[in-house]
Design goal:
Number of helices: 0
Oligomer: single chain
Shape: globular
Largest sheet: 8 strands, antiparallel
CATH class of the largest domain: Mainly Beta
CATH topology of the largest domain: Jelly Rolls
Structural class: mainly beta
Strand content: over 45%
Order of helices and strands: EEEEEEEEEEEEEEEEEE
CATH superfamily of the largest domain: Exo-inulinase, domain 1
Distance between the termini: 24 Å
Number of domains: 2
Length: 241
């Protein structure tokens, strides 16, 4: 979306979405014309099914994991800040208390500390305990990737890569840079948006419903310090073809 704040309430650019040729503020619903140079189409956003109020605990509609490794930071923008020391493994932070099938999930991510080559954070959709689900990650390097966890023959969750790490010009590399990750799941079709730009599509029917989760992943080489804001799950409009 355009690099501008809302002219009515001052909400940051991460809250401005495209809708029917106009920019619309998520907070106050003010609409204003898009700049003439802006020609990056993005689907209309459906009604909010579940948003995360990151100002205080408990967070209605969300279950927490690894709570001793993150904190809520209410100002200047309600955020969840997660810190993990060196170590392998994906660490989940928030999990939707309910399951979703067709849904449009988005979150803004900012990395604050860690070694550039070894850390990532992202969003999971249609995730089920002891079965798996789809994960989409972004990195400090301005790259992204996606795949899924699935139980193997030893009943252990194993990662399967659908698209390996790939650079994208829509991502802002570096520490302190905020990137918006959005995943739209409709039936067996998935669209991955990075800062409002359609980056990838894929088709897969392994998982049809499950939780929405946010997660970070340090490594044996690096700790991680990352911030999440504006976590929302929205409906995919029924009138889409």
């Amino acid at each position: 979306m355009p690099e501008t704040s809302c002219p009515n309430c001052g909400a940051p650019a991460s809250n401005i979405v495209q809708k029917r040729g106009f920019a619309v503020c998520d907070y106050c619903d003010t609409s204003f014309p898009l700049p003439k140079w802006y020609a990056q189409p993005e689907p209309d956003m459906g009604e909010v099914l579940l948003a995360a109020d990151l100002r205080r605990k408990p967070i209605p509609g969300w279950s927490v994991s690894n709570e001793d490794h993150w904190e809520l930071v209410p100002e200047p923008e309600a955020a969840l800040r997660a810190r993990f020391e060196v170590g392998n493994g994906v660490h989940y932070l928030l999990r939707s208390s309910g399951w979703f099938d067709d849904a449009d999930a988005g979150v803004s991510i900012k990395f604050l500390d860690g070694k550039t080559d070894y850390i990532r954070a992202g969003l999971f959709v249609r995730y089920q305990d002891k079965r798996g689900g789809y994960g989409i990650f972004v990195s400090v390097q301005g790259t992204y990737m996606f795949g899924y966890y699935q139980l193997d023959e030893q009943d252990e969750l194993t990662w399967h890569t659908l698209m390996d790490w790939t650079s994208h010009t829509a991502l802002r590399p570096g520490f302190g840079e905020q990137n918006r990750l959005r995943v739209r799941a409709r039936s067996d079709r998935f669209q991955v948006y990075l800062n409002g730009v359609l980056a990838s599509t894929f088709t897969d029917d392994l998982f049809s419903q499950g939780e929405v989760r946010i997660a970070v992943e340090p490594s044996r080489e690096s700790n991680i310090d990352a911030v999440f804001t504006n976590l929302q799950v929205r409906a995919v409009p029924d009138d889409e073809e």
